[in-house]
Amino acid sequence: MKRSFSSAWVTGSSLALIAATYGLVRLAFGLVLPDAQRDLGFDAALGGAISSGGSALYVAAALVGFVGAARAPRAAVIAAGAMAAAGAAGMAMAPDVTTFAAAAILGSAGAGLASPAVVAVIESHPMTRGDARAQTIANSGTGPGLVVAGVLALVLLPDWRVAWAIAAVTSALAGLAVLWALRGVPLGEERMPMPPRPWFGRHVPPLSAALLFGAGSAAVWTFGRTLLVDAGLDETVSVVAWISLGAGGAAVAVTARRLASWGPQRAWVVTVVLAAMATAALPLTASGIVVAALVAAVFGWAYTAATGALIAWTTQLDPHRAAAGTAVLFVTLVLGQGIGAAILGLLMTGAGIGAAFAVGAGLCALATVFARREARVTAAAV
User: Fold this and answer.
1) Category of 188 on φ-ψ map: left (φ > 0), alpha (ψ -120 to 50) or beta
2) What is the DSSP code (8-state) at residue 321?
3) What is the DSSP letter of 284?
């Protein structure tokens, strides 16, 4: 009984840290963006630049975590919770857009550190070491976090500052919960080695695909709710769509076995095409809550399932470096989001929100080319 409780606490607290740092802080930026823009007075181009800066710091933090989290899991957990909490608190109290931007960028670093920290915690703790299911559950926190963020927005908006204050407290408490689970446990014996140069050569297709898909997905993640508000949907409808996005991501657990049976290339093509279709369809959802919620749920499912296909892809290429491959691909995905947020923000200001989402959908669709090309090469080799 005690072993079962310890395992559940380690896994549950780790899931809470992912839910807080990703769902309540990093990805909730797009949820509150329209209200923050109205109150602080900045346009979509600056909103995209802030999101891009957050992605850049996320990448830097993830690389630090990639190198050092396995050696110092406690330090990584402390830094992840502290940065997310500080960023959210800074946004809650920001008197102007400069302070808001700096805090938003800082908050993203918490998510960048949280993923490698959670992987290290699960692998280091004697109750969860080698438990692939515990890793899967712990790292599935983004979807539930998005749902909670949406519910908070539904209750609190337009008072977005209170939502960020709650996110700050939740992030700090989640970090403390993980630390409590690690009390008395010896941790930090090794670090994750960087893959050799030939590994990167074999990974050109998935790395290219992840970069493009990240850039295209920035349309929904950064400007999805802005689009719905500008289209005339009321606040409740736009927030319910965001909750549906998170629910769609959480629903991936139900379809995981079927997706795995398809193989990574086929799963990547199907999920990314669906994400592209949802991105293109979102500007057409002004007809009401049902359509907007359905399209958002499809995108949430497709995006989350596509990240699972990336994990399967790198595992297929080099099963002995699956953890390192996952980390590198996810960093590339978020780097793409940063680039995409900046470009699409400028495009929204100049050509309009419809054009920005069309480009985002096109970038997502283009990301399928690399999976098809690799599948043909593999078939020819066989």
Assistant:
1) left
2) G
3) G
